[in-house]
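Before a colleague's protein record goes any further, I have to sign it off. Would you go through it and say whether the fold makes sense for this chain? Take the sequence as given and treat only the tokens as open to question. The record follows directly below this note.
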Amino acid sequence: MNALATPWWPIGAATGATVGLLLGVVYFMHIRSMAERYVSGAPPWHAAAATLARICCAGVTFFLLTRWSAAAAICGLAGFTVARQWVVAGKGLG
């Protein structure tokens, strides 16, 4: 049976969009804070370690969304993209 033919795909899509949005806000706010710390003189290995951890967390999250359903993965990526636009525009959590 096709995943979109089941009645559960809207729940997966909504959850994926929410997870993607939250992950995107945290991801891009962290990039901003790491850039500020790096410019202020923090050791370069802090930025490297944080970047590796951030990419791994995003990769694992999107892997889990793709294992759940295609709708969750697509909506998760859409939420991640919206969060990027939101954070870059300066409307982050703070």
In short: The helical segments are 9-39, 44-68, 70-88. Residues 11-88 form one domain. Residues 65 and 73 are 5 Å apart (CA to CA). Residues 9-39 form the longest helix (31 residues).
